[in-house]
Amino acid sequence: MDNVERAKTFYGKLFGWKIERFPGPKPYWHIDTGGADATPDGGMMERQCPEHSFTNYMGVPSVEKAAAKVKKLGGKICMEKTAVPEMGYFVVCQDTENNTFALWERNEKAK
Fold first, then answer.
1. Got the DSSP string for the chain?
2. Cβ neighbours for 85, distance < 8 A, ≥ 6 positions apart
3. Taking residues 2-28, what's their average pLDDT?
4. What is the pLDDT of residues 23-43, one digit of tens each?
């Protein structure tokens, strides 16, 4: 992330995540996705070099609705809705920090 505060706002609004900095000397943020257990759900750090990127898949009820929200929040769609037969659909996106991520919708009827 080049601008952690902007990324926190983007992901917080998109998924309802709570993102808080971990104490310690190295800047690292805990991502609470709202799951039932108390274990950390994910993490985020500042970009370590220009090539540093990630692609995480986030499960959503509808990739179409989530993709529309990505655009509304200033993100971009890199790959439109794509079927993985008998498994589901994904959409590859880019956030406001130019990081790539994907939306995943489980759907055994995907063709």
1. ---HHHHHHHHHHHH--EEEEPSSSS-EEEEE---SSSS--EEEE--SSTT-----EEE-S-HHHHHHHHHHTT-EEEEEEEEETTTEEEEEEE-TTS-EEEEEEE-TT--
2. 110, 111
3. 88
4. 777 788 888 888 776 555 777
pTM for this model (two decimals): 0.68
Query: CA–CA separation, 110 vs 12, rounded Å?
Result: 29
Single-letter amino acid, residue 9: T
- Count of residues making up the chain: 111
Query: What are residue 56's phi and psi, to 5 degrees?
Result: -105, 150
CA distance 3 to 106: 31
Dihedral over alpha carbons 62, 16, 74, 102 (to 10 degrees): -50
CA–CA distance, 79 with 101 (Å, rounded to integer): 11
